[in-house]
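1st attempt posting a full record on here, be nice pls
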Amino acid sequence: MSEANSSLKAELLAAIPSLRAFAMSLAGQPDRADDLVQETLMKAWANLARYEAGTNLRAWLFTILRNTFYSEHRKHRLEIEDADGHLAAGLSTPARQNDHMDFEDFRVALQHLAPDQREALILVGATGLSYEEAAEICGCAVGTIKSRVNRARGRLGELLGLQSADETLGHSRPRGGRMEVEDADEVAAASRSA
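the predicted structure (as tokens):
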């Protein structure tokens, strides 16, 4: 080993207590500080060719330590410790293979709608046209389009086995589709408390 390398090695070893103190101030945990110092020394040793002789070795080492700490901090700040796996067990992603089947069910149910209801629902719901634009295309009144879309949505819900908000809350609308004012207030209050 040359004299320059042994001098550099001695300077690296002499810097360890200061590096550890700085790492401790950043990490706050002795084992984490030791890991930071070790990582810093390994990076410094691997990049010794980048070190310019005659410059401040301690400053170079402290910069490596600081950058290592903040890089790891950025990587790990969104991670959550879950040693026993309880959090991971509670997370789930729905199976994607059912999406195709759900869409196929929707497509079949859509075909079971009356043609005028299907047309109104597609114009307003799928293509994003306003009720006025859909009424103009269909050659009928705006109220007729609104009624067709409403009936189509309700029928689709029935065909797909979905419950309306009223059924979920235990309310049913009187024949004619209009709710009394007190019924509307009860539904609104129930939905706020749910």
